[in-house]
TrEMBL record:
Keyword set includes Aminoacyl-tRNA synthetase: no
Annotated signal sequence range: none
PROSITE patterns: TPR (PS50005)
TPR repeats mapped onto the chain: 368-401, 439-472
Residues forming coiled coils: none
Pfam families referenced in this protein's UniProt entry, alphabetically: TPR_16 (PF13432), TPR_19 (PF14559)
Domain of life per record: Eukaryota
Keywords from the named record: TPR repeat
Disordered: region residues: 103-129
Protein name, as recorded: TTC8 protein
One GO location term (cellular component): BBSome
UniProt record, GO biological process: non-motile cilium assembly
Protein's UniProt keywords contain Glycosyltransferase: no
Taxon lineage: Eukaryota, Metazoa, Chordata, Craniata, Vertebrata
């Protein structure tokens, strides 16, 4: 209910904190801290029984409130910068065995659909059903591609580690405290705080999450773990997190393993698996998760971790099995439902996919992506009455131009399917209006231009498409076919080779290359 005017301020602040009203909590704590020690605090008849202790409590509560305002769960955040990707010093094997590395996605071991059916991201993996941090950081093959990516592709993007979800040094304090930083890092005597375990933990989280000052956080954690005689597993996990952020993965691994020996925690297993994935050892991470499942049977986070790794290694059928296990434990797990749905869709079972997406709709998820997927499922399941209404809803819910572009692109695809090429042309044009870097739309426009006999326009569009998305085989193959028709055999051959590189199992490319080789042999 409403708080009475005579409520004890510290208790009121704590109540605000518990209800996640961090700004009000921080404001009350600030007022308490601004009073001179020993002074009576506003509120009739309430005097601080122990002024120093009350101030310490207010200080600790304010640190926690400020931390919670900018807190990001470290397990889910995973962003590799260009530098970490291209200058990776932790590579264990330069040429890894097939199926043991995430850098070289194996040809689908689990009988997943080919790139002809299921589009791939820049890092060569099939598009998953759910956007998550690890799908955002595929490893580009060349430096040029790495630098081009952030402006073009919307998946597999390399960004600098300083950007993204971590606040830059000192910016969070400006946002949450306009008067200046609440704690001056340079004046802190870390050794003093390390001897007060209750304050030290709140202070560590503040330095790590709010100030993003990893080195000071690491110093504090090292002093505190020493004070706890290396018996507190929590500090070991925090030191591991600091090492991970600083790129010292082997040191982080030691800390997490040591923490697991003292206290078996699911979070620690997830952190350790993150280290192994960054070191490109997915098989070790899988084994770790499976050992974790022996100790924590049916734990959703571990099952989901295994499914993600299988998906990244292109083993789609095993991933689907584990996602089904996730749903047995938690039948409202959005990621699992979305991934199983997209898997059914690309396995030519749109009716089953429709049931999964409908389930998401029943759970109260109401966004552009879901209606876009519903529209596509309805179209392929021949429920044409629902298709256009779903896409209209998707367009009205789109939050940015990229989403709008994707919906228009799918509408164009639908128009091609029902044979209305003029509508398709308009839709692909609208796609490019919303997103000038949409390679698929350039490719499909080129095909429509070819049908009209406009060879030059088609060539220009295909060149744009293949430079924007070197990982897609369609623009290369179409360009090769077009060049062969107009007699430019050399260009046709180089493009066909690029197409073969992007999708080795494409039969039409193989036939074209064979024809061209025969031509050249005759010459």
């Amino acid at each position: 209910g409403a708080m009475g005017p005579d409520m004890e301020p510290l208790f009121q602040a704590w109540s605000y904190f518990r209800r996640r009203k961090f700004a009000q909590c921080s404001a009350i704590c600030s007022r308490l801290l601004e009073q001179a020690p020993g002074e009576q605090v506003a509120g009739p008849g309430w005097e601080t029984g122990h002024p120093a202790r009350a101030r310490a409590a207010a200080w600790s509560l304010k640190t926690r409130a400020l931390t919670e305002m900018v807190y990001v769960d470290e397990i889910e955040v995973d962003q590799e910068g260009i530098a970490e990707m291209m200058l990776d010093e932790n590579a264990v094997a330069q040429v890894a065995r097939p199926g043991t590395s995430l850098k070289v996605p194996g040809t689908s071991q689990g009988g997943g659909p080919s790139p002809a059916v299921r589009p791939v991201t820049q890092s060569g993996r099939p598009i998953t059903g759910f956007v998550r941090p690890s799908t955002q950081c595929g490893r580009p093959s060349t430096m040029e591609q790495a630098i081009k990516t952030p402006r073009t592709a919307h998946t597999a993007r390399p960004i600098t580690s300083a950007s993204g979800s971590y606040p830059r040094l000192g910016t969070a304090s400006m946002l949450t405290n306009p008067d200046g930083p609440f704690i001056h890092m340079s004046r802190l005597n870390l050794a003093k705080y390390a001897h007060k375990p209750k304050l030290a933990k709140a202070l560590f989280e503040y330095i790590f999450h709010h100030e993003n000052d990893i080195k000071n956080a690491l110093n504090l954690a090292a002093l505190a773990t020493e004070h706890a005689q290396f018996k507190d597993w929590w500090w070991k996990v925090q030191i591991g997190k600091c090492y991970y952020r600083l790129g010292l993965y082997r040191e982080a691994e030691k800390q997490f393993k040591s923490a697991l020996k003292q206290q078996d925690m699911i979070d620690t297993i997830l952190y350790l698996a993150k280290v192994y994935l960054r070191l490109d050892q997915p098989v070790t991470a899988l084994n770790l998760f499976k050992q974790g499942l022996d100790r924590f049977p049916g734990e959703v986070a571990l099952l989901c971790g295994i499914a993600r790794i299988y998906e990244e290694m292109n083993n789609i059928s095993s991933a689907a099995e584990y996602y089904k296990d996730v749903l047995k434990q938690d039948n409202t797990h959005v990621e699992a439902i979305a991934c199983i749905g997209s898997n059914h869709f690309y396995s030519d079972q749109p009716e089953i996919a429709l049931r999964f997406y409908r389930r998401l709709l029943q759970m109260g998820i109401y966004n552009c992506q879901l209606f876009n997927n519903l529209g596509l499922c309805c179209f392929y399941a021949q429920q044409y009455d629902m298709t256009l209404t779903s896409f209209e809803r998707a367009l009205s819910l789109a939050e940015n131009e990229e989403e709008t572009a994707d919906v228009w692109y799918n509408l164009g695809h639908l128009a091609v399917g029902i044979g209305d090429l003029n509508l398709a042309y308009q839709c692909f044009k609208l796609t490019l209006v919303n997103n000038n870097d949409h390679a698929e739309a350039y490719n499909n426009l080129a095909v429509l231009e070819m049908r009209k006999g406009h060879t030059e326009q088609a060539r220009a569009l295909l060149q744009t498409a293949s430079s924007l998305a070197p990982h897609m085989y369609e623009p290369h193959f179409n360009f090769a076919t077009l060049s062969e028709k107009i007699g430019d055999l050399q260009r046709s051959y180089t493009e066909a080779q690029k197409s073969e590189e992007a999708f080795p199992g494409h039969v039409d490319t193989q036939q074209l290359l064979k024809q061209l080789r025969e031509h050249f042999a005759m010459l």
